[in-house]
Structures
1.
Amino acid sequence: MYEDLVKEIFTRFPSVQNSGFMTGAYKPGLEAMREFDKALGEPSKALRVIHVAGTNGKGSVSNMIAAALTSAGFKTGLFTSPHLEDWRERSRIDGKMVPKDYAEAFLTQWKPYFTEHDLSFFEITTGLALKWFADEHTDFAVLEVGLGGRLDSTNIVTPLVSVITSIGLDHCALLGDTLEAIAGEKAGIIKPGVPVIIGEKRPETEKVFNAKAAEMHAPIIYADETEPRLWDRRQEILQAMDLRAPIQEKNLRTVLCTLNVISTKRSAWRDLIYGIEHTAALMHFHGRWERLQKEPEVIADIGHNAHALRGNFEALEAAGRPLIIVYGIMADKDLDAILPLMPKAARYIFVAPNTPRARRADDILERFLDYAFGSARNDNATTARNDKRATTARNDKRATTAPSVKAGVEQALSEAGKDTIIYIGGSAFVVAEALEGTELE
């Protein structure tokens, strides 16, 4: 019954995760969500919320805050997206997914409302999380914005603190094609009198955030200009953390600043730090520089835009070890911005996960080779030299395709030596299929 109900909401109410942002699955605006919240008994008003937006890092920051509060003894709800394997991953309390029987009862009771009011998949999912957190009388609820901020379904809440992790160029067709425009959408979560933590100060976005905070009379804190409690122990904490991505130092600073604002129990800091150090384990948080295997070392990360991948690729190059990258990307992502960042000495296996949103693996390969060697096809001079260059590109052994993510990972494992790093990434879909379909030791 539960599986049928979930399949139905994926089919009748298309999700952005499966259908993309330009297919009608994404419905910006708050009125429908506000009305749904009222029908549910206004659970949003019963919650003490930490609201987290940002281009990159918001998932890690949300999970770290939730893990810290859970470890300190607070009953803590966590709402995130996307999910990798199970829809219920999006709603957790103290790291545990919403029970199937609760989800089933919710979907059964409210299905007529979904249909009558033409709710989006994300509005349904947000409503479930808010209702469950309120019914369970959580001490805190950490809500990660789905997209943008100003018009996101989560933005019906008035939080204890708003957090904006970073600003980068992503979802430009919906949020704007400049950092200033995107910052304006993220700044939409800033509420009257509510403190806001900004993860990083950038010249392009500072004026936007300062203006919105002034308009809302909201205290504004730039994490990268702040020395939060225990920041002097950051190297010790970072070494102990099970989230190992290069961005985690920046995320840690944002998290500590946030905890400074909301924590009133100074004696609980030891427990808060324990939660931060064990976030992946406590929250069952996957796909953020996650080591799936030790030898050869297999790392999976859902970073999908240039802003996120730059640090990942730099860290892989800095390791100075043989490198195989199993890579896939969604068709709406800016591959042109990512290609120059790709490690030049790596071996590439391009894949397309099983979703209509994915870019074809052979298309990624073609674009990669054209970037690496130059495109003879588009060159004005049709000389023998160009023909030879094109042939060399197509026969280059650095890059190939695989028919599936599973096949790509298996091929990488067959080629890897003990010292090789295998990196699986480019999309949450790629990581999800690697987690689900591949046997790793």
2.
Amino acid sequence: MKTVWVLGDQLNRRIGALRRETPDSAGVLLVESTAAIGSRPYHRQRLHLVITAMRRFAGDLRRAGFEVDYRKAPSLTAGLAAHRDELAPDEVIATEPNSRSAASLLDSLEVTQVESNQFLCHRNEFADWAGPRKRLRMEDFYRWQRRRLGYLMDGDEPEGGAWNYDHDNREPPPPGGGQWVAPPQSRLDDLDSAVLAELPADLPGADPVGWWATSRRGALARLRQFVDSVLPQFGPYEDAMTVTNWHLAHSMLSPYLNLGLLLPDEVCDAVEQAYREGRVPINSAEGMIRQVIGWREFVWGIYWLWPEQYDANELGNDRAVPPAWIGAADTSMRCVAEALTGVEERGWLHHIQRLMVLANFANLYGIEPARVRDWMRERFVDGADWVMGPNVMGMGMWADGGRMSTKPYVSGGAYINRMSDYCGDCRFDPKQRTGPDACPFTTLYWDFLDRHRSRLAANARMARQYSTLDRLQDVAELRQRAAAVIAEVAAGRL
């Protein structure tokens, strides 16, 4: 009998090689690699989520009648070799992996690969779409996806007459921080405890307290709760940040999509159904579907299309990750402190905290992009390799020189002040760029433009910023203050 080898981010019977198999046609192999677990300082909750979900999925398959070989092994290679030696399957097949390194490994091990359906746009389809285009724009891809998949369409036109509702979805947090429905919280059981007891003691991050479901059943329950109780508020406040609440109206479904516990079509189907039934406004439904079939699948396609992007460094950033980011110091920047607390406690932040707080600061400060990419891969529960490559190197750090985003996503303290309530009690003033009370974001923003003038001044989308920079009378003082900020951050004193 043949064996279906299920990798740790393909935990669903509907995915690829497993979807047409029955207990009578195939056995199943899952390998828990100690080398992979110990290869990086992964967040405790990330490893707990992946390992526990793998073990629960193995149990689900056994209850469905499958013969499951669940192995702990020094490596994936060793696990497969032991399986072949002991069970001698006629053939080993697997779903196409979600990373280039895993794909290369399976090629070398002569494992037959079945086309993946874990994304709604296969990477070959994305390459065909991209082929004739001089520039790849997510908005163009998103509209193409909407048309071919049929989500929120009225014939050939978009439902509601508009392709996106960004203008309705940029509200700052409401006064007082707002009222938000809390995500479900699972009770940890004996399996959770067993996995936690096996993890290395020196991993970063707090122990889990039940925010992350580790089974398909739990993931489906979180999808239902999000659509029924949270999604109506998602649209207007998807870019907001507040000290009073860490989750706001975000779905928190990305870990389940990345592990296969949920599939993108069932998420989008549930969102569209809620809209059609009048339970969700168009801007919230469209905003969520755009995140799933637009941005998420655009990033997936870029990862496979541009492997060279993964190690790019157009701006020549060369600094290390600051001490505060690895728990070796505190920071008095309120927005950064809030973000790092979220990473420590939950291994998760919503997209604006990742992009406009952490990645923005990393670029202004000058952290080497690969270090930011790896830090986010390690610290986030949804930090898949294919996610962090394009999101960090292309969008967050502009390391690819504008191939993915026409201009760097950088800003001073004004943006954070507008979209959050962080600045009110912060010791720094977002309106000041020099002096001891100047917001480090504001100081470093103008210094960033000054330092990278040769690369960015000709960019048409940066013309207004450089026009403003040219009118500043305190550039020399600004440079001195920026140098002091950088030194203080590097020393763990800011």
3.
Amino acid sequence: MNDTICAISTPLGRGAISIVRVSGNSAVEIMKNLFECKKLDYQNIMPRYMYFGEFLLNNGSRERCLSVFFKGPFSYTGEDMVEFQIHGGTLLTQLVLESIREKGARLAEPGEFTKRAFENGKISLDMAESIIGEINAESEGELRASLHLAQGFLAKNIKKMQNSLTEMLAEIEATLDYPEEDFEVETKEKIFKNLENILFELKNYQNSQKNGKLLQEGVKIAIVGSTNVGKSSTLNALLGENRAIVTDIEGTTRDTLSESISYKGIKLNFIDTAGIRDSQDMIESIGIQKSKQSIEEADVVLCLCDGSRELNENDKNILALVRDKKNVVYIVNKSDLPRKLEKFDEEIEISALNDKNIDAIKEKIFALVCNEKIDYNQTIITSSRQAQTISQAIEICQNIIDAKEESMDIIAMLIKSLWNKLGVLTGECENESIIDLIFSKFCLGK
């Protein structure tokens, strides 16, 4: 039987409430020793009912608070659980935690509550990963994808595939047990038709990972141009706040500055770069080199020019740098001044000073990286672990299909290998190190 664990489940600091969570066989006994409530009969404690009473701190003081009991297996962990909702405050919360520990509970490891939920069959491994995604989400799109995964659709479909593979193994076993019946040709046709269906579904998941990576990491956008074309002003306009220093002095930006916003559920990561020009200043030269590196690493490049003047040598050199780069957006700034610059074939004319046409830049970026509408009602793979496992499963599945002429014994061995690989996605595997690694990413108290 599992021992009893405890942890603070809310961020430490001043606030309205803090929650301290207890889970395990002794949860109710600890509650009985520490929490007094006139309406609470511990012989007939009501699950999911909020009791108002007093918590007995180990220094002799009393804290008026709320407490609720969750009866296993109908709790988050699948075990008996108790939560204390106390007034927010670092010292008070720590005192409550220490009082609970003195009554026999130990401090939970990161993610141990959710790990117990997994071990007790409350959630699958992919659902646990979706909870990490919910907590760490930095854009609406990433959150929506994680919330969908949390519903368990991936686990259900993987289980369906595994059941199909189990049926295949049973049919192979029957063929091997009764060779005189000559079922092999018919059995193989049925098996390989089902394998083609599994391969098709796995490839759909693999294709969704492109959107998953986009939702999780966002788009890396480099803002490049020569000095004083308005890169920092454009960044400020895109962010809607003054984050980059703006002056009339050339070379003000000497290093890259990164800031992010969310647009239509996608995280846009803007990188304001140093103006690219020939410079004898060592520090500025380093910044310029970083600018060139940002061009190479960016998903989208915003190439800025000053519309109030003709192109100079620095402008021409920068245009040459980005010419062969994919997803370049030509931005002509300073539309509030008389135009002297020739028009580009495709350009967005803006005034960073007056916030004119700034949303057109965001819309263009979105159109470049989202060629099709993301369907949040479909499972989107956002975990690199899941993506890698699916790629490995596809390889095994393809190997089975390519081994159609092999003996039934070899095909059965490969099918078992595929079944086990799919189990890595949901946690139905014997690889304890993978499970431990996933739950170590959780915060304390989750």
